Amino acid sequence: MAGRLSGVASRIMGGNGVAARSAASALRSRSGMGMPVGKHIVPDKALSVHDDLIWDNGTPFPEPCIDRIAPTVGKYEALAWLCGGLGFFASLGLLAVWNDKASTIPFAPKVYPYDNLRVELGGEP
Question: Which end of the chain is more exposed for a tag (fewer CB within 10 A), N or C?
Fold first, then answer.
């Protein structure tokens, strides 16, 4: 696909000039942006014990993987928020089940001609 696009680009730009070759190489290498992930650093010595707890994405200040929100939110406040959220969604689900009209009549009622076949089924004419 990139070869066809570079061929079209070279025809538009006027032959096999420098601009056409650079456009062709840019289309082949992700439009000039490079690979999606940077180079991996291979460790040459043993890792520390807590190396899996640090998120090092190449910035000067690596951050911990586990957020520390304990000083700002208490244990019982977090429990209250959790129970409140789960209670809200549970009540919403129960309301949807209680108010479900389609489950009371799972099929369309049959409609017969001639006054719903009243005479044919033994009713008075």
Answer: C
Q: What angle do CA 53, 57, 60 make, to 5 degrees?
A: 100
Q: CA–CA distance from 90 to each of 26, 94, 102, 125 (Å)? A: 53, 6, 20, 54
Burial class (CB in 10 A: 0-12, 13-18, 19+), 40: exposed
- Please tell me the predicted confidence (pLDDT) of residue 84: 98
Q: Are strands 63-64 and 54-55 parallel, antiparallel or unpaired?
A: antiparallel
**Amino acid, single-letter form, for residue 110:** K
Average pLDDT over residues 67-86: 85
51/41 Cα distance (integer angstroms): 14
